[in-house]
Amino acid sequence: MAPGFQGETSAIYPPPDSVPVGGTKFEVSLMGEKRMAADGKGAEEERIARKRRGGGGFYRPPRLRRVLAEEASAAIRRIYAVSRSIFNGSGTVPSPEDVQLLQFLLDKMKPEDVGLSTDILFLQNRSASRKPPAITFTTIHICDNFSMCVFFLPPAAVIPLHNHPGMTVFSKLLLGTMHITSYDLVGNYETDKYAQSPQLKLAQMVEDSDFTAPCKTSILYPTTGGNIHTFRAITWCAVLDIIGPPYSKEDGRDCTYYKDHPYTNLTGGDLKVKGSFGWLEEVEIPKSLKLIGIEYLGPRIIDS
Asked: Please, which domain of life does this record's source organism belong to (predicted)?
C-alpha cells in the first residue's frame, strides 16, 4: 500500500516503514468491554460513576491504551511465532506441514485474540453511507518475510480483484459475512488466440461463495488456490490476512488489479474447456478504492 492511506493506493498492504494514521481508536477487554475517549456526556457519566464508587468529584479523563498491552494474547503470539518460522522470504512457499499448522491455529482464532469483540463501538459508529464505503485496515506486524493485517469492511465495501505475485496468503474471517470470488490464471496451454483482446487472460474460477464467521481459513498460493481474488462485504466484516512475502515493488511483487468478464461473452472461437472460466483484463488501480490506516491497539507482539 502506498503512503497516504486516506487516498488512493497501489497495493493492498502498507510498506514496512509506513505508520498507519487516522481512523477511530478503540479498546476492548477480554470480556468484550469497551470504552472510547470522549468529552461532554462521557466525562459527566464518568464523574458520576466515580462519585458512586466513593471517588468524590475528582475526574481524570480516560486514556486510550493499547488493548491488553500487559496480557498479549497467547493465540496471536503463537500465530506470529509460526508465521516467522514458516515464511522464509522471496521465492519460497511453506511446506504442506507448515501450512497445515498455521491453518489449524487460525481456524481456532477468535476476534478477541486481536482485541475485537462482536459489538465494538468501532463497527457501530462508523457510517456505511459513504459511496463507495472506505475500508479501514490496521497492521499488526510487517517485515521482509511476512505481514499480518486486519481489514475492516463496512457493508457493500469491495476490495477489488487483485493478485498476489509469488505469495502465500492465509485469510481468516473474524467477523461478519462476505462474498469471495477468486481465480487462477490458466497457463498450461495457449489461449490468447481465442481472446478478443490481447489484454485478456483466461482464468479458472476457484471460489464464488459467501463466507460467514466463524469459518475455515482460506489459503492461496503463488499460482493456485485462487491467487487473484476480490472481497465484497455483505455485513460489517473483519478479516485477518497473513501474507508471505509481502508486496514489494522493488522485488517484483507489485499489486495488479483486474476486471473479470464472463467467459461465454468474450470467447472469439470454439475453445471448449470444463469448469467455470472467465477472461481477466488488467486495469489501473480503481479510483473508488479508499483505504484508511489506523493504529493497531490489540495485543502486542514482541519480537524476541
From this structure: Eukaryota
Helix or strand or coil: residue 175? strand
Confidence of residue 159 (pLDDT cuts 50, 70, 90): very high
Q: Residue 214: is the preceding peptide bond cis (ω within 30°)?
A: yes
Q: What is the mean pLDDT of residues 272-284?
A: 79
Q: Which residues neighbour 147 within 8 Å (Cβ) at sequence distance 6 or greater?
A: 13, 139, 141, 241, 242, 243, 244, 246
In the sheet with 237-244, reading across from the earlier edge strand, the strands are 218-220, 168-175, 237-244, 147-153, 135-142, 291-293
Q: What residue type is 148 in one-letter code?
A: M
CA distances from 255 to 139, 208, 249 (A): 18, 21, 8
Which DSSP symbol is given to 44? H
**Cell numbers placing 11:** 497495493
DSSP percent split of the chain into helix, strand, coil, nearest 5: 15, 30, 55
Taking the alpha carbons at both ends of the chain, their separation in whole angstroms is 27
CA distance 280 to 161: 9
Confidence of residue 119 (pLDDT cuts 50, 70, 90): low
pTM over 0.70: yes
Percentage of residues in the chain having pLDDT higher than 70 = 63
Q: Would the CA dihedral through 238, 241, 246, 248 be positive or negative? A: negative
User: What DSSP designation does 253 have?
Assistant: B
Residues contacting 94, CB < 8 A, separation 6+: 86, 87, 102, 168, 244
